[in-house]
Write a structure and sequence with these properties.
Helix content is 26%, strand content 25%. It is an alpha+beta fold and 354 residues long. Helix 1 runs parallel beside helix 4 and helix 3 packs across helix 4.
Length: 354
């Protein structure tokens, strides 16, 4: 049974996973699927300078086409990986909502986030603009104002790191869709500039953005082939499209709060180890009939060791997550299985005295 649990927990033993990001065949752009990521190998300072705690000014422009995503999770479109967890800045999709998240350890959840709903419709191209200034954060879609959040400000320190597209740096939130272009400015564009740039994107004249002030990066993804996407701004950054899927911040035994989207996985992890606890306790009871409580402890420890082995091995599997949550749920499932077997054998509701 232990071998079976190890096999199920680590299947399909994918230590070298192909990176599922490809270039579009009919136009310039990148196609993102699960187990895909694009990133800048070296960190960069995307701000215009200033003190780390001062509110920053920057703009993100993305011309994209969302794909079909499950309604029970969030998916990272773009992030600035500054080495912290979660990443300093993340622009992500949840259902049809577009949200900007900023790490803030002063908050209970460790981050702040804002964003409008009903923006990202499946297979509907749109030009998204997010402007951040000391006066607040504003979202635009196709040149039109969506919503302004005057109290949502971002410190300068969050805009220093490597650019990551299509996934979280920790590899847990792969976005699905097409990305046709990306521009980053180290200043907040005004409403008229947003409209002007939207026209350039949709008229396939985005290369003209290269002359605008404050441009930090411009990617049109029009190379046609190769592992590199080249920045057309004066900074000349480069994005890597690796052949193999890579996780930039692989975490060991990560502990996350359990939300509604995690209930299915939680139930599977508990129920998956429940038969193990039941059967192994029955076997152990035959060998040690007088140590009922000690038998439960022995079985639970064995289940925990097997689960820990799975979780530590998953560190080397790029499309799997090493999770303390799974370890706890597997151990709980083992305990419940052993407890059920013990109760069926004794016919009692509590532990007997040893």
């Amino acid at each position: 049974m232990a071998a079976g649990l190890l096999t199920v927990g680590l299947w399909p033993f994918a230590f070298r996973v192909p990176n599922r990001v490809g270039r579009l065949k009919d136009r310039a752009g990148l196609s993102f699927q699960p187990d895909g990521i694009v990133y800048e190998p070296e960190p960069a300072d995307w701000s215009a300078g200033g003190e780390p705690d001062e509110p920053m000014a920057f703009t993100l422009e993305l011309w994209l086409e969302p794909g079909q995503v499950p309604p029970t999770d969030l998916f990272d479109i773009l992030s600035i990986d500054d080495g912290g967890f979660p990443s300093g800045i993340v622009l992500f999709q949840w259902k049809t909502e577009l949200l900007l998240r900023v790490r803030d350890h002063a908050r209970r959840r460790g981050f702040r986030e804002v964003g409008p709903g009903g923006v990202l419709a499946n297979r509907t191209p749109c030009c998204i603009t997010v402007t951040v200034a000391p006066s607040g954060t504003t979202f635009y879609s196709n040149g039109s104002l969506l919503k302004n959040y005057p109290d949502f400000k971002v410190p300068n320190s969050r805009l220093n790191g490597r650019l990551v597209l299509g996934n979280a740096a920790a590899g847990k939130h792969p976005w699905v869709g097409n990305l046709f272009g990306l521009a980053i400015f180290n200043r907040a564009l005004d409403a008229s500039e947003v409209v002007q740039n939207y026209k350039l994107w949709t008229n396939h004249q985005a290369e003209r953005l290269g002359t605008e002030s404050g441009l930090a990066a411009l990617y049109l993804f029009n190379e046609g082939e190769g592992q590199w996407a080249h920045d057309l701004s004066p900074n000349r950054h480069r994005l890597l499209i690796p052949e193999r899927y890579e996780v930039l911040q692989k975490r060991v035994l990560e502990l996350d709060p359990i939300g509604l989207s995690d209930l299915d996985d939680t139930a599977i992890n508990i129920l998956g180890f429940l038969p193990f606890g039941f059967i192994v306790y029955r076997y152990r009871r035959l060998a040690k009939p007088d140590g009922r409580f000690r038998n439960v402890v022995w079985v639970v420890c064995l289940g925990a060791i097997i689960s820990l082995t799975i979780e530590l091995t998953q560190v080397w599997l790029p499309n799997r997550t090493s999770s303390t949550n799974d370890l706890i749920c597997n151990t709980l499932g083992t305990f419940l299985g052993a407890l059920l077997a013990r109760k069926l054998q004794t016919g009692k509701t509590g532990f007997e005295k040893i």
